[in-house]
Amino acid sequence: MMYGYGYGPEFGFVHVLNVVFWILLIVIAIKFIRHGRGWRSHGGPWGGSWNGGYDRSMEILKERYAKGEINKEEFEAKKKDLMG
């Protein structure tokens, strides 16, 4: 049977797939835009931190404590500040 103008039984399914595709594309674009600044400022996914430098800050804090530059109370206070 001829339906004409391309309105066959699969017409609705094709449009649903089209909508799903565009929604998925928009969600992916938003994720890249929201995380883009963090990638550039911290060296990207291959060299840097995804969490705004928290890991490196903790490394520095631990190094300073190990070297004796800060005492335990200062270490705990700064650690608490870094954790939020």
Write up this protein.
- The chain is mainly α and 84 residues long.
- It folds into 2 domains: 1-43; 51-84, no CATH class.
- Helices cover 68% and strands 0% of the residues.
- The chain is built from 3 helices and no strands.
- The chain has helices at 11-41, 54-67, 72-83.
- The chain is rod-shaped and about 80 Å long.
- It starts with 10 loop residues before the first helix and ends with a helix.
Which structural class best describes the helix and strand composition?
mainly alpha
Give me the number of helical elements: 3
Helix content: 55-70%
The secondary-structure element order is: HHH
Number of domains: 2
How many extended strands?
A: 0
From the spread of the alpha carbons, the general shape counts as rod-shaped
Strand content: under 5%
* Largest sheet: number of strands, sense, barrel closure: none
Catalogue the unreliable spans: 39-43, 45-49
Determine the N-to-C terminus distance: 67 Å
Average pLDDT, rounded to a whole number, is 76
